[in-house]
Amino acid sequence: MKDIANSTTTNKFSTRRLVLIALITAITCIFAPLAIPIPISPVPISLTNLVIMISIYVLGFKDATISYVVYLLLGLVGLPVFSGFTGGIGKIAGPTGGYLVGFIFLTLIAGLFVEKFPHNRVLAVVGMVIGMAITYIFGTEWLAIQLKMTFVAALSVGVIPYLAGDAVKIIIAIIVGPALRSRLSKMQ
User: Fold this and answer.
1) Which of 59, 141, 142, 159 has the lowest tally of Cβ within 10 angstroms?
2) pTM of the model
3) Is residue 112 pLDDT above 60, yes or no?
């Protein structure tokens, strides 16, 4: 099954494609700031990775990556779209910025798996797990450097508390994502 974003016969951005990218970017801007801080970590619980994983199904990995990069740029220029309704370069340069940058890898890696194996949920999960692992490594190293802690200490506050929740987000994404893709493909 062709993904919706690449259903045009040319590589140009169609109106439909631009609208879908803008819509997913807006959804990311709405859900990402709704973060829950936890007392044991400087990293809040966020829905950003859930939106990214679902966006891969809706947009395909290229357009999902474009959407996420646009979201990052909006936050970089100061719009309050990051966790806790914050924005600006300070958020990227701060302790949790590595996770924000690392989500680009999640989008690319999980997106490649979903696009190459569109009907195989097991491989979609594998791609999402690998993408999250790369995000975790990148974000944890960044957190460790920023807070002058060991990698293991950063792992214990920046990853371990989130593993169960991220597993649930992956399950939600592999259920909701294909359903959305199917509905949107019928609307063409």
Assistant:
1) 141
2) 0.89
3) yes
